Structure formats: structure tokens, C-alpha cells
Amino acid sequence: MDKVNKIKEYEKKNPFRLFADHVSAVATGLKYTFKPTRITLQYPEEALLLPNGYRGMLRLYKDICIGCTLCALVCPADAMKMATEQGKKYPMINYGRCVFCGFCVDICPVDALRETGMHDAAFQNRRELVFDPDKFNADFQQEMPTGKTVRRVKAIIDENKGIKYEPADN
Amino acid sequence: MDVLALLEFYILYPSFFVMIIFPGLIFALIVLLYTIWFERKIAAKVQMRFGPLYASKRSGGFLQLVADAMKFVFSEIIVPEQVNSTLFALGPVLYLLVSLLPLAAIPLSTIPPTGSVLSMYFHEFYDPNVGTGIMAAVVSNYSLLIVLALEAVTPVFVLFTAWVTNNRFALLGAVREGLLSVSYDVLLIMASLSLAIEFHTLDVAKIVEAPIPGFVANPFAAFLFLVGMLIGTGRFPFDIVEAESELVAGPYTEYSGLLFVLSMGGSYIGTFAYSILFADLFLGGWQPFTGYYGMIFTVFKAILVLMFAVFMRSVYGRYRIDQALRGSWKYLFPLALLSIVIGGVVGIWIR
Amino acid sequence: MTSRPEELLPEGGMGVEVVPVSGELNVGPQHPGAGHMRILVKLNGDIIEDVDLDVGYVHRSVEKLCENRNYIHLIPLVERPAILDSIHMNLGYILAVEKILGVQAPERAQYLRSFSAEVNRIASHLYGLGILTVFLGHSTGFMWGFGDREVWVEILQALTGARVTNSYIIPGGVRRDLGGAIIEMTNKALDYTERKLKDWKSMVLNNPVIRARLENVGVMSRENAVRWGAVGPNLRGSGVYYDVRKMEPYAAYDKLDFEIPVYKEGDGFARTLVRFEEIEQSMKMIRQILKEIPEGPILTDRFLNQIPPTRRKKWLEEQRRVVFPGYYASFRPPKGEATSMVEAGRGELLYYVISDGSAHPYRVRMITPSYRLIYVFKELVKGSRYADLVSIYGSLDYFPPEADR
Ligand code: SF4
Ligand code: SF4
């Protein structure tokens, strides 16, 4: 084990540096005043297009599901439950409990569950949060309540600005 | 004289006009809104965000402040049990009025003998010291003293506001204000004094009319005055009295609704009054204009100073009370003495 | 004569207390500087005589819940106490479970664990710096901390599929692999953060106001740091060379080349500097990982072979991720117990897991770094000024949910 690392001491405050430090702090402030690097996403007008593989809301492909109950078993939040429809078992999900861990997607042996890139959703009451197998069997879509068109943008890491948003072409 | 002329006479009457319209109560409230907007916007710029935006996007969210003010006006004022509700309501109101008072003695411009709408007041507001009419609510040979005296009163009302709310955070804030006021008043008075010695007068108007602006004549005094102003009005890095993370909102902890606006407004308007004085003393006030334009120019300079003062928020945190006190007594006080010496020495030469 | 104010001022409700020369101040839980706890401060003038920390406002009985759930179910649960440091919370737990199961993650997975952990450490330290600066009234530092953190959160999101609740590390490996796009993102983020840290230095670290508020405040001597059980950056700020990554390397740390910043002073500024330099070290490590990461599977063969080959291939090729074998849903590890230690963002995090052979652990004990800080905090603020309460709080980077669990 290397104990070579030295124990450092920081440079003590010195009244002559003090003034320079004040100046450089104010200068940094001014620099950002004139060259702001804003990373705000202007939400209702722009919304993020979440990257592929984002663990958003799920959907079920009912015709593929074999009713093996593994998804319900692995679900850490008991969000996934099995419902019986005409003698067949299908999963149903309660988004009020789901923690979006994606375990169910990963464990399904036939890939009957998939993640969608959707994450913005609003519901009127708690009952609506429970999706029975039929409702669960479709891509979740919800209109933005503003009625305006929402620009979909992608977040891109930029070496100068941190994060910038580019229109997503879809 | 017909009615209109009479009306004009009374509205433009300097004592009324300066105190109530420009740059007094009405304009000061607009400046208050603008300053808070500016403070939020510029902090947002430094902090990688937009600040207020959605209330009137075209003006960069300026109406946000109007909306906020409206919201505060209509929100409930909660009066704590066990306080005297009259005094409770009186606290912020008095504080606001008192912080507006110094404006009364600060000269804003000169009144030329002829050729201006203001010329009719030339004789009434004649300052023999300067030899011209002065646009100020009260013309006096000792205006500097009056302003400083009036400004020294405000801490009392901060204490009063805190005291009547019977809240421990407020009391702690009040104690801090009390301690601080001793140090910043000294700085302000000594900085102003050094200028008075330098120009051999206690009349602000005369200082403005002097051939060189104050910050050239005595840069130390200018610096000290600026720091004293930041401490005195609780701007960063001396936001010690209100210190949000320590004292919630200091003396104003218990206030809500309109009373909260008034108490917050008090400190901004105080800064504004100090800024006008700073513009007069150190930045040459209305020079080279006179009359109306001079007035606007003075206030314009003051607003620049104010903008600088609120910009400090995005650069600094806050000092601790003992550090601010030590700083002002150990470093700034000797500097103030130095500036008085400079004032005296340069004063000989100026005469 | 009476001295009771309400008798002196009978009518009119002017029951104003006399200014307390000494008295108690009830800071929190609804206070801008208290976090999720209540701090009863006994003041004598401006000096704090004693504090009583009333913790537990965000207690969620994580340890008890652990006893009623399958092993796999606990991954999202153990992340919850320190949501901004979730990779470490997750990693420590998995390391203990892996010891009981007797599996070892393959080389590439080890590197990926280190990678995600270091990304998370940067994000966590920036969060801590942000909170510290807002406690000192420096709102720019606060916004910068959270804004610059966003970059790293974005990388975690691209890698793991979630911003903070990553649930990335699973027994035997990790869930997703690093792709070219993420490497490119990371390189950009490294460049950005390196540049930005310069501004951080002039704006925050060397800002005279911040320095004045941190230097010689909350000084913890080396002996006290050891005696009070401080961990992590707080311990290293007091001149103790101790870091689990060096002492008992886990993941890929034995192959990485990095330094542990240690400062002697033991005050708030030393602690902040340690954090700050750890960000730099983490970035160095990330660069090294990107360069040296070996090719190979990201899940141990024992579990990989349980996944149907076609499915395994499809997911690996399409999305560079592994899927779970059905075994995970409710596995029963052999009887046994294990401890694991990781160096989380705030310090040493210890897990102790006992298995009784059933599908649930018999007991999971987690000793989180913030839990140890409670006592340190209490001792440090004694004798300091009231304004330093928040300064010490921030410089310790104490995170109440992590302590309450
Ligand atoms: S994502 Fe996680 S919590 Fe949600 S249903 Fe699937 S397994 Fe359950
Ligand atoms: S794991 Fe897949 S196949 Fe099995 S029940 Fe769930 S969705 Fe259906």
C-alpha cells in the first residue's frame, strides 16, 4: 500500500492576494453576464426526446406474452400484477407504484415488455394509474394540454456550454 | 392664473415633485420593481438560466414583478398572536417611509434662472452657496448633514420592525443590524466628511458643482462609501441581517403579503437613496446638464450604481457578522482616516 | 415588582420577550438552512453552546423493508437513501451479495462499475458544493453545482437509462455496456468540466467571501476526526489518509492510477478542497478507464449462460445490454454472511448482509457515511458562531435521508 501520498496544506489567505481574488471573482461574474451559458430547457415549448433505452413508461405486447409471471415476481415495487383474462394470465401495471427500474423488461423471457421513451404523463386520479392488460397493450400517448405543438429536442453535451438542446429529427 | 397653470405649479413644485413623483415614491416603486427584475435576470445569466421570462416574454419577463407585487398585495397578511397588530403593521410602513426620507435633502439638479419649466421656482429654491436654483425638496447649506442624519435613522426602524414581531430569528437579525449600523454609519459619515473637507462645504450641490468629480478627487472615499452602502442596505456580500439560510428572513421573518413587500422594498429604496447620493458626491451628479435633463442624468447614474450593487448577489456569498465588523473596523476604518487626510491635503490645493 | 413582561405590559398584547442573551433557537425542520431535520441550538450571544440534532424526519425504515423482499428487489430500495449517490449505494449492496453468492464480475464489468461510480462521485460532489454555497448565500455556486452536475447525470442516463435511480449494478456484473456514443459524450463532458472548474476556482473556491466563511471554521483535529468516526472527504480533510478505494480496492480501483487528496487543516475549507480535488481525480480516472477498459462480457458467465442464447445475442448486439436470467427473480443464496465496503461520495459505506438460505436476506445493515456525520456535526458546531452552523453543515456535506435511511 502506498503511503507516499503527502498530506497537503492549502495556501493561506494573504491580504495581497485578497484584492486580486475579489477582482477575479467579479470578472468571472461579468464574463458569464456577457457570455451566458444557459442550459434551461424551456419546457412547455420544448420537450426532451429521451434517448433510446431510457427507462420510461412501459408497454406490453400482449400477443407475445406467455404469462410466465416472471415480471410480476421480479418487480421490486409490486407494481406489476398478473390479471387473468379468459384463462390466460397477463401482467397489469400500476404506475402509482412503479419505480421504472426496468427489471421486468430485462427479465421477460420473450421480450413482451418494452420501454418507451415516454415519461411525461398526468392522470386525473389514482385509478387511472392502473393499466389493465388491454390498456397496457398500446404505446402510451398523451397530448400536451397546451394544445400547442411541442418541439422535441435532444440534449447534447457540449464542451463549451455543458448541455445544449438540438431539435430532434423525427 | 388659470387652473392648469396652477396645477402645473403645484405638481412641479420641487418639494412635492421630488418626494412623490420623481425620483420619490412613485418612481422609486418603479425602480424597485425594475431593480428586483434586473437582479433576478442578471443572477440568472450568471447562473446558467433565464430568470423570470414567461410573464410578457417580449420584455424579458418584466411583468413578472408586477404580477408578483399583485400577488403579494392580495395575499393574506398573517398577524401572529401576541403581537400588537397596530405596531406590527406600522413597522414596515415606517421603515419604507423613513428610507425614502433622505431623498428630501439630496439635490438632483440645478434650476436655471430662465428657459426651463422649472425656472419659476428659481428664487424660491435659490442656493446662495452655489449661486443657482437647486432642484431638491429642501434646499439647505447643510444638505450633506441632513441626508446622513436621515439615513442614520433607518436602522432604528429595522430594530422596531423586528422587535414588534416577537420572533427569535427577527430579534437575532435586529441585533445584527444594530451591530452593523455602528460600523457602516461610521464609514459613510467619514467618507462623506472627507469629501466635505476636500471641497470645503457641507452642501451636496456645491460638491457636485465642483470642477472635479468626487471619485477622482478622493477614490478611497468613493470606495468606502460604496462598501458602507452595501453594508448599510444589506446587499451582498453583507446580506447579514436577512441571511436566509441562517435567519430565514431576519427582521421580516413574520411578515407576509403586502407588509413583506414593504419591508423588502424599504431596503431597496434605501439602496436607491444611497445610490443617488453616491452619484451626486462621487460621479458628478447632473453635470454637465441642468434642469430636467440634469435630474434624469443624476437618477440614471444612480440606477447604474444600484445595478452594480445588486449584481454583487451573483458573485458573492455573505460574510459572517464578526467578519464584517472586523473588516470594517480593522481595514476600512484606517482607510477612512486616510481618506480624510487625503481630503484635507487635496482640499488645500483645491481651494 | 414583577419582571414578567406580560404583567408589565398588561393590556395590548405587547408580550415581547426580552432579547435572549442566551436562549434556544429552534432551527428546522421548516427552515431554509436545516435540511430534513430539526436542530435545537442553544445560543449564548452569537456562540453556540450546544446543539441537539433531532434526526429521523425522513426515516423510511429501509433496513427493515430489506428483510421482507427478495434480493433483487432491494436494488432500487437501497438506492433510495442517497438518491444522488445511487451507484455507490447499489454497488456496496451488490458487492456483499456477490460475496454470499460466490460470483465475481468479469473484468469489463468491474471497469464499468468504477466508471459509473466515478461519474456519480462527480455528480454527488457537485451537489454537495452547490448546497454548501447556497448555505453561505452564494446562489451562483448553487446553480452552477446543479447545472454542471446535469452533464454527468446525462451520461448516467445514457449509460443506465435513468437519471438518478440507476439500478445499474446487478449481481455478477452490470446491466448495460458502454457504447461509442457514450464515450464521445464523456469526453466532451470531461473537457467541459475541466474548463468550468477553472471558473469554479475563481468564483467559488478562491472567492474571498467563501474562503472567509470556511477557513478555520469547524476545525476537526486529526485525533477528533478518528475518535468521532468521521469518514470520507471529511476525514481526509483532517489529514487522515484513508480511502476504501486504496485500502481495500474493489471494482477496478486496484488497476487505476489516482491520488487521494488529503489536507491537514481539518477546517471547512480543507474539506471543500478535498471534494474539489476528488472531482479532478475522478475525471482523471474516467479518462483512464475509457482508455484501458478491456473488451469482454459484462455479466459473469454463470448468469450469462442462463439466458437463452438467441435472446442474449439479440439484446447485446442491438442495445449493448444484458437481460436478466429468470434466476434473478427470486434466487436463494447459500447460508452465510458478508460485509462490503465502498467509498461512496460522502465516505465509507458499509453493508452487512446475512443470508439464511431463503429468498429474503435475514438482515441487511447499512452504515452510511452521513449516519456517522451526525455525531461529528454535533461536536463540531459546539463553540462556533451561529452563522457557522450552516457553514459546518454544508462543509460536512451531511445528507439527512442518507443518515435516516
Ligand atoms: S419497471 Fe420496475 S417497478 Fe415498474 S413494473 Fe417494471 S419491475 Fe416493476
Ligand atoms: S415476463 Fe413477459 S411473458 Fe412473462 S408474464 Fe411478464 S410480460 Fe408476459
What does it look like?
The complex is a heterotrimer of chains A (170), B (351) and C (405). Chain A contains four helices and eight strands, in the order H-E-E-H-E-E-H-E-E-H-E-E. Chain A has a single domain (41-170), classed as 2-Layer Sandwich (Alpha-Beta Plaits). Helix content of chain A is 20%, strand content 22%. Chain A is elongated and about 85 Å long. Chain A has a three-stranded mixed β-sheet with strand order 1-7-8, with no helix packed on it. With 351 residues, chain B is mainly alpha-helical. Chain B has one domain. Chain B is globular and about 55 Å long. Chain C has helices at residues 5-8, 62-66, 74-79, 86-101, 107-135, 139-160, 180-205, 208-214, 222-228, 232-236, 244-247, 268-292, 301-304, 309-319, 369-381, 388-396, 400-404; strands at 22-27, 38-44, 47-54, 169-170, 173-174, 336-344, 347-355, 361-367. The longest helix of chain C is centred in the first third of the chain and has 29 residues, at 107-135. Chains in contact: A-B, A-C, B-C. The interface between A and C is large, with 50 and 65 residues. The site of one iron/sulfur cluster has 14 residues of chain A, from helix 3.
Order of strands in the sheet with most strands of chain B: 1-3-2
Q: What percent of the residues of chain B sit in helical stretches (DSSP H or I)?
A: 55-70%
Number of helices of chain C: 17
Ligand names: iron/sulfur cluster
How confident is the prediction overall: mean pLDDT of chain B? 83
Strand order in the largest sheet of chain C: 1-2-3
CA gyration radius of chain C, whole angstroms = 24 Å
Tally of structural domains of chain C = 1
SSE blueprint and pairings:
The complex is a heterotrimer of chains A (170), B (351) and C (405).
Chain A: H1 15-34, E1 46-48, E2 58-60, H2 70-74, E3 80-85, E4 88-94, H3 103-107, E5 113-115, E6 130-131, H4 133-136, E7 151-158, E8 162-167
Parallel strand pairs in A: 1-7
Antiparallel strand pairs in A: 2-5, 3-4, 4-6, 7-8
Chain B: H1 3-11, H2 14-21, H3 25-46, H4 63-74, H5 85-100, E1 109-111, E2 126-127, E3 132-135, H6 143-151, H7 154-165, H8 168-199, H9 204-209, H10 214-217, H11 219-232, H12 244-247, H13 257-282, H14 291-311, H15 321-350
Antiparallel strand pairs in B: 1-3, 2-3
Chain C: H1 5-8, E1 22-27, E2 38-44, E3 47-54, H2 62-66, H3 74-79, H4 86-101, H5 107-135, H6 139-160, E4 169-170, E5 173-174, H7 180-205, H8 208-214, H9 222-228, H10 232-236, H11 244-247, H12 268-292, H13 301-304, H14 309-319, E6 336-344, E7 347-355, E8 361-367, H15 369-381, H16 388-396, H17 400-404
Antiparallel strand pairs in C: 1-2, 2-3, 4-5, 6-7, 7-8
One iron/sulfur cluster is lined by residues 74-77, 79-80, 93, 98-104 of chain A.
